[in-house]
């Protein structure tokens, strides 16, 4: 539900796949804008979306492959197997990847992957691939040289001359250095080192200040920002796997009676379930989603992702990839063919509204993203 329910009525609880900074989870969103200068357009047929602010724009797949899992805690990832999995995602049409400088070897894996694509795939496929990365610096003085050195490091790791999207995170709002950093990032964009500048987990107040300073933000990764009109790339959409048949008809209050919560994602989203309405109410939601899924011949995660993608504020949704360990290629591609009817939507809304409004609990950007 933090993927499915936190952003909209269903989003009382859901968002989209998670990303984390250390032991903190970082959400993603795409920013269309709180004002007309930012426009988002999407093509259902191709499953792609364009995020635009002025002359800056980027098209991405509406389902984004989230690479937080490479940072550890989900099992050992072998690099060759991981790159093989990335190639498989791209060959299936899932060609947008989200990573960060702090997600373990994520940027290096992307560099290995993009070189294989250059060697083994046609140029047309290469042109469709997007690598979105995040920069999560300590709140030190943001000089031009410091910003440039860090961006050059990501460019080197990812083996690209220009980053498709640089998503900036800032830990301490009392330190206004984030504006200096963003101005330097904008300069690097003008030099061609970055194609688009974006944010991760900035709240509405700071987003407005940034836009008023003339910084062309094309997206913002946050849990809740519908009030600003900012388009989202959501995370936690399938709640690390909680929104799936695996957890249907389970009772986690009985030791060893249900599947283990053995990943950082499952543990985080179980806490969100507790905050939203508890495991019993969550089971009601799962049963509702299962009924919708069975009606259409798809899985619970497919319904969850489709429901979120259909929300007006959502441009894209991240689904975490455990590269070389497990995959959701079939379920992800099934999203693009699924059409939820009014009965489906109303049934999901009805159960999701019975939980607490998480906007009131965590605000438009959870405090786990601040120091």
TrEMBL record:
Signal sequence, renumbered to the chain: none
GO molecular function: oxidoreductase activity
Coiled coil spans: none
InterPro entries: AKR, NAD(P)_OxRdtase_dom_sf, NADP_OxRdtase_dom
Top-level taxon of the source organism: Eukaryota
Listed Pfam families: Aldo_ket_red
Listed SUPFAM superfamilies: NAD(P)-linked oxidoreductase
Domain NADP-dependent oxidoreductase, residue spans: 62-351
Record-linked CDD domains: AKR_unchar
Record-given protein name: NADP-dependent oxidoreductase domain-containing protein
Phylogenetic lineage: Eukaryota, Viridiplantae, Streptophyta, Embryophyta, Tracheophyta
């Amino acid at each position: 539900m933090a993927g499915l329910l936190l952003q909209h009525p269903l989003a009382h609880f859901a968002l989209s796949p998670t990303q984390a900074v250390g032991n903190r989870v970082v959400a993603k969103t795409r920013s269309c804008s709180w004002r007309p200068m930012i426009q988002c357009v999407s093509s259902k047929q191709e499953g792609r979306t364009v995020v635009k602010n002025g002359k800056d724009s980027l098209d991405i797949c509406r389902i984004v492959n989230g690479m937080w899992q490479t940072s550890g805690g989900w099992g050992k990832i072998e690099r060759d197997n991981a790159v093989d999995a990335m190639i498989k995602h791209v060959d299936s049409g899932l060609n947008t990847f989200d990573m960060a400088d702090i997600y373990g070897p994520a940027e290096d894996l992307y560099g290995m992957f993009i070189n294989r694509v250059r060697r083994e795939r046609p140029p047309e496929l290469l042109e469709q691939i997007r690598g979105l990365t995040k920069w999560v610096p300590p709140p030190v003085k943001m000089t031009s040289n410091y910003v440039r050195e860090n961006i050059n490091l990501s460019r080197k790791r990812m083996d690209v001359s220009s980053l498709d999207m640089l998503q900036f995170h800032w830990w301490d709002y009392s330190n206004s250095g984030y504006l200096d950093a963003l101005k330097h990032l904008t300069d690097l964009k003008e030099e061609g080192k970055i194609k688009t500048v974006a944010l991760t987990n900035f709240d509405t107040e700071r987003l407005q200040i940034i836009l008023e300073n003339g910084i062309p933000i094309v997206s913002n990764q946050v849990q809740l920002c519908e009030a600003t009109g900012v388009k989202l790339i959501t995370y936690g959409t399938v709640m690390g796997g909680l929104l799936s048949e695996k957890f249907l008809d389970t009772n986690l209050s009985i030791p060893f009676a249900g599947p283990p919560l053995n990943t950082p994602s499952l543990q985080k989203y179980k806490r969100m379930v507790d905050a939203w309405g508890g495991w019993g109410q969550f089971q009601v939601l799962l049963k509702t989603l299962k009924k919708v899924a069975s009606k259409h011949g798809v899985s619970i995660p497919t319904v969850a992702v489709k429901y979120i993608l259909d929300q007006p504020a959502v441009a894209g949704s991240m689904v975490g990839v455990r590269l070389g360990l497990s995959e959701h290629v079939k379920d992800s591609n099934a999203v693009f063919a699924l059409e939820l009817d009014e009965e489906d939507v109303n049934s999901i809304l009805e159960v999701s509204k019975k939980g607490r409004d998480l906007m009131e609990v965590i605000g438009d950007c959870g405090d786990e993203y601040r120091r």
